[in-house]
Fold each of these.
Amino acid sequence: MAMIAIKVKAKVPGSIHSDLRREGVLKQDIYVQYNDIDYQWVSLDNWTFVKTFTVDSNILNKKTVNLLAKGIDTISSVFINDKLIGKTNNQFVRYKFNVKDVLKVGLNTIRLAFQSAPAYALQQYTDHQRKYNYTIPSENKYDFIRKMAASFGWDWGPSFPTQGIWKDIGLELYDTVIIRDIVVETKPLTKSMSNWKLNLNVFLESIADQDKGEVSVKIEIAIPDNIPITVWYPNGVANDTQKLYKLKVNVSLVDNKEISSQTKKIGFRTIRLIQTPIQPKGLTFYFEVNGLPFYAKGTNWIPAHNLLDAVTDDYIRHLLVSTKEANMNMMRVWGGGVYETDYFYDLADELGIMIWQDIMFACAPYPSNPEFLETVDVEVRQQIRRIQNHPSIAIWSDNVRPFVSSSPSNGLQAIKENYTSGSPNDYRYGDIHFYDYNSPLWDWKVFPSSKFVSEYGFQSYPSLETLSQAFSANDFTYPLSKAVERRQRNVFGKESIEKMSGRYFKMPSNGNIDRFNDFVYLSQITQAMAIKSETEFYRRNRDIDNQTGNGYTMGALYWQLNDIWQAPTWASIESTGKWKVLHSYAKQFFDNLLVVPFEDNNQLKR
């Protein structure tokens, strides 16, 4: 069979799927009907991106000329003027290549030759198995490539393993020194927090230290008394201030006019994860900001789209503003997605949404061979330095902020257990995940009396308005049509929604679009009431059981905030940005002032 070459114009930042759709090769949006199957060939092919660009003598006269790529997705060989200058294998790493000796005055060509992510992941799995004579259980091999795990599909979304240059790429020029990263720590000098100091660690790259890679300069700055500091608090906590300050760092060498500059937005606040012993056994697990304990109310974030270049700043703002409007103060960035954009974290700072930041590992055993750990080490170092200055960052795996090894975990108890607990969902320690698809979820007695619940949820269908973006009117029937039914990616999803809805409501009779719409509505009411009942229990569950050590719940983050496509999921906001019934309920059950009457042993309590 003859090979067909496809050539289209590419947009950077972008992805091959977006390029093919924009140029008409893909005739429909990737989420319409069966396109998650029909467009699989895109991910299985290898694609090459080529561009010509002009270089003048002023560029080549610089002592350092780097190609700086802030995000390559994912497996590629990079050529300039047909000379290999480097390879990439990690979507979450910033790559830097010295290209001074391969550039020329006039026209130059850059070429990135990508390899199919699924093919690469499968090959890595096979090679690992052969080399170490050991098989790591892996369903679709996403754990063998440092790439957004959800792009291989999840139980709430389709598989679209992308290729492309997903962040900015360009030439970086300097003669003496450049600031690469700035790590910022704010520390109060008094208990009243009226006086503060800054501890800075400025990471530099210079001509003189090229062999070392980088050097760091530590700077301590006491904020003068005549500069009043307003401390930063999460949404709805204390005086509810999200005051931000600009920090600008300039670096230059003596007798040289070249200046390297970076500006960061910072907030003055302290954050601690409190884990103290309780009787008869267990540890507390709650956050304290500026010395004040607070109840963590919120949700979990997944990637907003399979094609990250399709996500607009306006849409990100809508989703984060929606969390604030629903009285949330914390959100977990789930480890199967990506470290989010600078704009995302800037918004979290602005809105007072504290971020539980996962390192990008999710739901699988990962390799631990030296090559894999080496790229992960670079990834984690870069991402911590990029994000840590944000006052919204509450917790992740590093030595500056509070630390947990995973989610769920047993917190400090996990260290004693050498991170191999037989019961990582122990109600007496750390955070837990809880899902139940069979019990009556409007009954508060079903739910666990734990310290912090970082995942819990129940599914519903999105509105007819949202589903209509992916289906035709003929697909909307009850019982469900095959087209709609196959969107359910959780093995228990369809049955659990119908069973739980049927427990509390009379289910629709057989019919077309009207009966289907009835079913959608019932699924959303069922979901909203289930999460309402569960969250209200967690919020009032402050007592400690003297017999078990259970209780004193200080955090509730339901799964999940947002959708990636038009499908039945746990989300409270549909892929179009429309609120489900659950999100409107969240505005009430996350209100700072909440009165919760409940029945216990035939007695009404509150």
Amino acid sequence: MDNSAEEEGCVGEWGNGGIDDPYFPRQDRWCAAAGGGGTASRGGGTRDREAADVTQPLDVPPVEPAATPEIPPAPSEKDARAAMWGRHAALVVWANLLAAGLLLAVLVYCWPRAHGPSSPLYEVPASRRPERGNCARMCVKNEPPRECYFEFVVRPHFVVDIPCEADVGRNTSNCDPEIKATSRRLTFAINGQLPGPPIQVCAGDAVLVDVLNRLPGRQLALHWHGARQKGTPHMDGVAMVTQCPIPSSGRFTYSFRATEPGTHFYRAHAASQHAAGVFGALVVRQPPEDDPHSGLRDHDLPEHTLLLHSRRSGRGEAGPATLDVSSLTAAGARARPRLAPGSRHLLRLVNAAAADCPALLGLDYHPLLVVAKDGGSCEPLAVRRLVLLPGERYDVVVNANQTASSSYKLRIKGYNACSGSYEETDLVYLAASANESAEDQQRPADKDEKRSFLEACPDALACRPPLQALGAAGLRPRPADVRLYLPFDVNPAGDFDGRVDFRYLHDGAPYYPAYLSAAAAVPQFGRVSFLPPSSPLLSQLRDVDPATLCSEGPECDARALTKGFCECTHVVAVPLGASVEILLVDLGHGSNESRTFHLHGLGFRELGSRALGRALGHSEVLLMDSRELPLAAAPSPLVDTAAVPNKGYSVWRLRADNPGFWLLESRGRGGGDVADDSGAGPQLVLRVGRDEDIPAAPAGFPRCGTFKGPDFLFT
């Protein structure tokens, strides 16, 4: 069979005259194979078939060659180039799509870090995304812990104070009875809220708070009051002790594990910023199986967390501070918690006052069942009234079993810096009619209840409940490994040259010896005034001048500006793991009031306290032995805040199991003025452990300190 024409056409079109392009295979090979030959050379198919016909036997019909498949016509050169450019265009489109996808991925992961996680592009997979805002939930046993992320922006904020006479017919819960005309008051707000946003988590959750300081010209540090920071001492939030303060327009991310269940709060460490509004609730819940008092209550609701806080009244800064009460669901307005009739409700009470404002609290016709203090569970104790010292937190159970009315008064009275302050709010039963006014809901005997409340407890410490730790009745403490005697007093400072101004500023506030320039009294531990170090003790101890570190004794007297009067960074070292007993004594020569102390990083049990009724000498304190002092029948629950009575003592026992530098502080009567931090009381630092025991600072942790240039310059 003659297939020369086909072969010729195949060779002519696809072989010698075909398009030589890598996208098009050599079709002459495909044509030769289609002709049935065994060679791939062009034109070889015909000769191979002729050779096959000669050698085939005669009685066998010749094998017909396979039909040559129809070959599509070859595209023209113009069409081929168009196809090539089409493929190139498709590649360009796919490359652009890939680049756009990569850009989107970069925005998703990097934009929140540069511009904050509030960006709508912050959408990472749920398995890798921290919980935004609160992790408030019912805590479940063995539930994996969550990462709870919060962004705090602290900036100046003006609040309008409305006199009650001008607020008739509107929201009277926001008016101020102390002022006669509407006025504006400067505050510092977190995310525009007063108090700040609540943090509600479960025990074991990781808390990450990204703080952006927008206070012009002011530094900032946030302390987590009640969080022991075990393993994360750099997150305690004490400027120049555990961290460098956050500069204006600067950021700092606090990250720690919520390991202490209970009612706590956060606050600016500077008293002026705390008083101006930088504070909020920190509630750490736990599964009912881990709560020894879960069977005593039916409800634990966010709106039942009440914060007491102080502020200057409209009568001017010279007047006393006033107390306000807020709840987590009524920020910026008077709290009116609701109770379900016939149910038992857990009230979480926080005295977040910046000033020395103890507060007496009572609820008409309802006893308060105290079940915890400062997060430490105690033996349940029913009381009619309760005193909260600044920084203290109480968990109480209220049984809504009254039927005479649908609304009851929660009454609050202030002491010391808030002396004369009286506030009240309503606890409303849910069955109350929405059309009833507050006056219609009250019992006729409310006036008698108010008079009885105001006359009760003339001394704040007289109404403090004698709480006992769970199962600790009859137990006596073992001898301590270390005993610390810490006498304190308010000492006059009139021996300095009045022509010299010794003032220096830290965090925008005057510090001692500014008091000396004004011939004022100075609160001291053992005649030692606390001097903030030049660099944080925890992260930059080697950068602190050793000459400024001291404790009570000859080493301090040698550098005193006047005899018996010393200023230094007062640090007391205790061994890691030691049982420590602290005897705090108010000498009582320069003041006539009790003081409240807060210990950072460590919990303690109060073994006993008592007012002696007379001033003491320094040598008398050194002869005191806690084993001979009258103590309580049982130790208190594990707490972090306690009071020392006026001209009296308090005995603490703690386990130094948390290495770090921990501040022991007392707030003075001040703390109500945005521009003044001079109300600080006695302070010192407990150093627990040696250098190798203290956790290293996180990578990239901020550094700060002093700089001294060369003694001469090269020109």
